[in-house]
Every structure is written in C-alpha cells, then in structure tokens.
Amino acid sequence: MYLELKNLTVDFNGFLAVHDVNMGIEKGETRVIIGPNGAGKTTIIDMITGKTKPTKGQILLNGEDIAGKDSYDISNSYGIGRKFQGPNVFDEMSVYENLEVALCGHTSLWSAFTYRRTPEIYRQLNEILEQIDLTEQREMLPRFLSHGQRQWLEMGMILAQNPDIITLDEPAAGMTDDETFKTGEMIKSIMKDKTVIVVEHDMDFIKQIAKTVTVLNQGEILAEGTYDEVSHNAEVIRVYLKSDDEEEEA
Ligand SMILES: Nc1ncnc2c1ncn2[C@@H]1O[C@H](COP(=O)(O)OP(=O)(O)OP(=O)(O)O)[C@@H](O)[C@H]1O
C-alpha cells in the first residue's frame, strides 16, 4: 500500500476528532472523503500534511511513518502538496508570476538572484496555463479572475510544485455547476498521474471523480466503497445524505 493510515487518532483536550482511522490509498488513486460537518475530514488532511500531530497511530508512506513530521518537511521531502479551502495566491503578482514562483520556489537569496527564465521553464509554465485553462488570463492579477479561475490557478500552483500526493479541501466550494464540472475534469486529466485525496460535499462532483469514497462520521469510518456502494448504504443515507437533503429543503 502506498499511503496507509493506521489507527490514526487525534485527541483535542479529551475530544476525539479522529478516532482509530484505518485507510489505505493506492498510488495514482483519487480518494474522496465525505461526511457530515465536524466528522474529522479536514483534521485527517491536517495530519497527513503535518499541520496537526496525531495523538496516536501511523501515517505510512511507502512504509515509512511520517506521522508528526512538520509540514515543511512533508511538503518538501515527502512530496505531499495541499490546496486549502480558501484562495492562497499572491495578489500583486500576475497569474503567470504566481505559477512561476510555485515552479521555481526560491529557497535562498542566491537562488533568487541567479534565477533565469530558461526555455524549459517557459515550456512548463505554458503547459500548466493550458491545463488550467488560464492562457488568456496569464497577465491578469488574480483579483480579476472568477472564483473558479482563482481555484484553478491554485491547482496549477500545486501542480507546478510537482508533488506525488495532492490533497484538496473542498476544491469545488462556491463554484457554479459548470465550474464544478470543469474542476472535476481537470482533476481527472491533469492529476491522473498523482495520488489525490479530496474532501468534498458535492455528490455529483464526487461521482464524477471518485473511484473509492471513504465516509467519516464523528471521527470514525462509517463506510468505504465505490460511489454507488456508499450512496446506497443505508447508514450513510441516514447520517449524511438524508440530512443534507433535509438541510437543502429547509
Ligand atoms: N485545533 C482544534 N482544537 C479543538 N477542536 C478541533 C480542532 N480542530 C478541529 N476541531 C474539532 O474537530 C472536529 C472535526 O473537525 P474537522 O474540521 O476535521 O471536520 P470536517 O469533517 O472537516 O468538517 P467540515 O465539513 O465542517 O469542514 C470538529 O468538531 C472541530 O470543531
């Protein structure tokens, strides 16, 4: 197994936000984690990406336990990238420059000083611009982009960093139906060689992208299976899907 969570647990002052979670994710898989508000979905991503240290359990990446390592190490040495819920771009830089910073990420003054745009850098940046459909917007500042386009820029910035594993926390939140569909197609095409872990609520979007869906409830795994399996599971309908519909109707 490529990425394996074993008895993963976090205790926030006596509250078990994640409790004995076991999950195995294959290399190249797109895994979606769903569940009601407060189920522990983001906390699991926080632990995988080093933001939160587990109280107990292991996070095995190719058999090596990375639980408790800091987020810088996890992103730089272990190739795990993260897209947060809200936009996370440099407002004063163009779309192109944002991607360039992500691609070339200067770790020292010297590397920034000696940096030159090479043909290979141009090629890679243009390829990413095409993949996220922002070629025409390349000189624009992010604030002039639509909400969806800003999210795609961030997906491009993560791609530019070339991680092996990409975690996306509600990538379609606030998007129109068309933008949501386009985001799903992007994940399927440009991230097809990556291992992708997505936290989402939009069931159509989940159906579009997921091979396996893990359902969390109150910090524990309630069900796991294909979209069809979990969406027909009586317990999942009771604790999650039904209450979702009722909220929408209310
Ligand atoms: N640092 C923290 N200290 C204390 N409690 C926390 C902390 N972080 C999260 N929690 C609690 O842990 C539970 C799980 O939170 P989490 O954000 O992982 O849920 P979620 O499934 O991602 O929910 P949502 O769909 O609303 O984003 C919640 O009850 C939350 O209030």
From TrEMBL:
GO CC annotation: plasma membrane
Record domain ABC transporter: where: 3-243
PROSITE patterns documented for this protein: ABC_TRANSPORTER_2 (PS50893)
Keyword Zinc: no
GO molecular function terms noted in the UniProt entry: ATP binding; ATP hydrolysis activity
Keywords: ATP-binding, Nucleotide-binding, Transport
Keyword Ribosomal protein set for record: no
Pfam families in the record: ABC_tran, BCA_ABC_TP_C
PANTHER family assigned: CONSERVED COMPONENT OF ABC TRANSPORTER FOR NATURAL AMINO ACIDS-RELATED, HIGH-AFFINITY BRANCHED-CHAIN AMINO ACID TRANSPORT ATP-BINDING PROTEIN
Protein name, per record: Urea ABC transporter ATP-binding protein
Organism encoding this protein: Megasphaera cerevisiae DSM 20462
